[in-house]
Write a structure and sequence with these properties.
This protein is α+β, with helices and mostly antiparallel strands. The protein has one domain: Nuclear Transport Factor 2, Chain: A, CATH 3.10.450.50. It has 5 helices and 7 strands; from the N terminus they run αβααββαββββα. The longest helix is centred in the middle third of the chain and has 13 residues. It is globular and about 45 Å long. 27% of the residues are buried.
């Protein structure tokens, strides 16, 4: 079933998008999720804390997913996300992403490699955890970081 989970996640999130544009659209859920029907209405959404001490933030449901991303995107003029790979972790799928972002205030460009872990149960996404640090995502997914 885990290969099916990887396929499910690949078919749920666009391979590349500018999240500032996506979350400013009239239907952000449809723009962010290619297949919103496979996301549980009560999905758990976590923007994980960092090892340096930044706290994590939790949301619930599709509305929570939208709220969390809109909060995160406030300081950004653009936040281009590219999915590099999806890694099978059983009922979890580790999504490795490359972010190229530009701040609104000083037009500073940032390139960062981060990750998300999507949890799938019975063909539905029941949780997604977003990580700034890939090592944390690998650990959370139960995988060994390369």
């Amino acid at each position: 079933m885990s290969a099916a989970n990887v396929d499910l996640i690949r078919g749920t999130v666009p391979r590349e998008s500018d999240l500032v544009e996506v979350f400013a659209s009239d239907d952000a859920a449809a723009a962010f999720l290619s297949n919103p029907d496979v996301v549980d209405p009560d999905v758990e959404v976590v923007f994980a804390g960092t090892p340096s001490g930044a706290p994590g933030v939790r949301y619930r449901g599709i509305d929570g997913l939208l709220e969390g991303w809109r909060d995160w995107l406030l300081p950004w003029q653009s936040y281009r996300l590219e999915v590099e790979d999806c890694v099978d972790a059983g009922d979890r799928v580790l999504m490795l992403v490359r972010v190229r972002a530009r701040t609104s205030r000083h037009d500073v460009e940032l390139v960062h490699h981060s990750a998300a872990v999507w949890t799938v149960q019975d063909g539905m996404v029941i949780a997604v955890h977003f990580f700034l640090e890939r090592a944390q995502a690998y650990q959370f997914a139960g995988l060994t970081s390369p």
